[in-house]
Specification:
Blueprint lengths: L1 E3 L16 H11 L7 H14 L7 E5 L2 H14 L7 H31 L2 H26 L17 H14 L9 H7 L9 H9 L3 E3 L3 E5 L4 E3 L14 E2 L5 E2 L1 E2 L2 E2 L2 H6 L5 H6 L3 H11 L1 H8 L3 E5 L2 E6 L7 E7 L11 E6 L6 H8 L14
Parallel strand pairs: 2-4
Antiparallel strand pairs: 1-5, 3-4, 5-6, 6-7, 8-9, 10-11, 11-12, 12-13
Length: 379
C-alpha cells in the first residue's frame, strides 16, 4: 500500500457505541494520512485535551516539521525551563486508563477482547512497528548529529565507537520521546474507544490525531508536529520503498526501508544497477538479502549459472554459495492458484541450508518434518 500527499479530516462517530467496520477503516486512514496538518483543528484539539484533563490551556503552541524537530524543540524548552513540567500523564495516560477501565467493566474480559479484536487490534501491529521505527530514527539521527558530519548512526548509547556527546544526546532524546503523545499513531487505541462510554475524555487527543502528528504537552507550551508528506507500506504494514524514502516529513527527516528493514539512502540508488557480481561482493548479509529479493532469485540463479540440487513433485531445490554467509537455499514452487491471465506464477521459499530435498523444504515452511508433510490439496 502506498499513501502519498493525502489528507484525512473530519470527525468519527459510532452511533450508540456500536462497533463498525467503518470506524476501524476511518482510523486506519487517520493513521496513514499524509500532507499538511490542519493546524487550526489540531490546536483546538490540544486546548480541549488540556481542559478535559482539568488543566489551564497552554500559553503557546509551537509547530515542528517532524518528530525529530519536535523532539529537539521539546528538549530545548525543557532544558531552559520555559515550557513547565510535562503533563502527558494528565492529558493522555489517565484519561486513556479511565476509558479502558470503564469499557472493560461494561463489557467484561471476554467482551473487551472481542471489541479490541474488531477495532484496535487490526491497527496495533502496524502502529507499533511505525512508532518504534520513528523513535529509532529520531534517536539515531540525534546521536549522529552530536558526532558531527562523520558520525555513524547507531541504535544504542552503548554502541562501539559512540562518543560521549553522542551518548549524552541519545539519552536526552530518549527521555524527551517518553513525553510524546503519538497523534495519528495513537489510532489503534482511539479506534477502540471511539463512540464508547468514557471515550469522550479522549476527545481532545482524538482531534489532534485526526489533524496532526506527534505532540508534546507541557504546562505552558505544547509542541505539535506536522504529518509526513510520504508514507509507503507493504501488505504487512511495514515501511517499504525501493526508490526513495519510505517515510518523509516536510523537513529533511526521512526513513528508508525495504520490507521493513532499515537501509541507507544511498543503498537504494544501487538497486537499479545490480549485477550478480555486485550482490556476491556485498559484505553485509542483510543488505545482500535485500539485493537478492530486489534483483529476483530466479534472475540471479539464471545469470549466475546455478544448477538445481534436486527435483520432486513439490518443486525444485536450489542452492547458492555466498562467500562470508551461509548458503542461500530455496525451493522453487508453482502457485496452484492461476493469475488473471491463466498462468501459474513460480515463487521462492527460503529454507534452512541443511535442506536436502524440495519436499523437505516445503514441509519445513509448515513446521513439519518431511515424512509428516502430506497435503490433502494444493492452494
Amino acid at each position: 500500500m502506498t499513501v502519498v500527499d493525502g489528507a484525512v479530516g473530519g470527525s468519527v462517530t459510532a452511533g450508540g457505541g456500536a462497533v463498525t467496520a467503518e470506524t476501524t477503516r476511518t482510523w486506519r486512514a487517520v493513521a496513514s494520512a499524509t500532507g499538511p496538518a490542519d493546524r487550526a483543528a489540531a490546536e483546538e484539539g490540544v486546548r480541549l485535551a488540556y481542559r478535559l484533563a482539568g488543566l489551564p490551556e497552554p500559553e503557546t503552541i509551537v509547530w515542528a516539521d517532524s518528530p525529530r524537530e519536535g523532539a529537539a524543540l521539546a528538549a530545548r524548552l525543557t532544558a531552559r525551563g520555559t515550557a513547565g513540567r510535562g503533563v502527558r500523564d494528565a492529558v493522555r495516560t489517565r484519561p486513556w486508563a479511565t476509558a479502558r477501565r470503564r469499557l472493560l467493566d461494561r463489557l467484561g474480559p471476554a467482551g473487551w477482547a472481542e471489541h479490541w479484536a474488531l477495532t484496535g487490534a487490526q491497527l496495533w501491529d502496524g502502529m507499533v512497528m511505525l512508532t518504534e521505527r520513528i523513535r529509532t530514527g529520531v534517536t539515531e539521527d540525534r546521536a549522529a548529529s552530536a558526532d558531527g558530519p562523520s558520525g555513524v548512526p547507531h541504535t544504542s548509547a552503548g554502541a562501539p565507537g559512540a562518543s560521549a556527546d553522542a551518548v549524552a544526546a541519545e539519552q536526552e532524546v530518549r527521555l524527551v520521546l517518553l513525553d510524546a503523545v503519538l497523534g495519528q499513531q495513537d489510532a489503534a487505541w482511539l479506534a477502540a474507544f471511539d463512540g464508547q462510554e468514557g471515550g469522550e475524555a479522549l476527545a481532545g487527543i482524538a482531534a489532534v490525531a485526526r489533524a496532526a502528528g506527534w505532540w508534546w504537552p507541557y504546562e505552558k507550551t505544547a509542541v505539535v508536529c506536522e504529518r509526513p508528506v510520504e508514507l509507503h507500506l507493504d501488505e504487512a504494514g511495514r515501511l517499504d520503498r525501493g526508490d526513495g524514502p519510505a517515510l518523509a516529513f516536510p523537513d529533511d527527516f526521512a526513513l528508508y526501508a525495504w520490507r521493513g528493514m532499515p537501509v541507507p539512502a544511498e543503498f537504494l540508488d544501487e538497486l537499479t544497477e545490480l549485477t550478480p557480481r555486485r550482490i556476491r561482493e556485498e559484505e553485509n548479509a542483510e543488505l545482500r538479502r535485500v539485493m537478492l529479493e530486489h534483483y529476483g532469485y530466479d534472475r540471479y540463479l539464471e545469470e549466475s549459472g546455478a544448477e538445481p540440487m534436486q527435483r520432486d513433485e513439490t518443486g525444485v531445490l536450489w542452492r547458492l554459495e555466498l562467500e562470508g554467509d551461509e548458503p542461500q537455499v530455496m525451493v522453487e514452487v508453482v502457485n496452484s492458484t492461476p493469475e488473471p491471465d491463466g498462468t501459474h506464477r513460480p515463487y521462492w521459499l527460503r529454507v534452512p541450508p541443511r535442506t536436502r530435498t524440495a519436499r523437505e523444504g516445503v514441509a519445513w515452511t509448515f513446521g513439519l518434518e518431511e515424512a509428516e508433510y502430506a497435503p490433502m490439496r494444493q492452494t
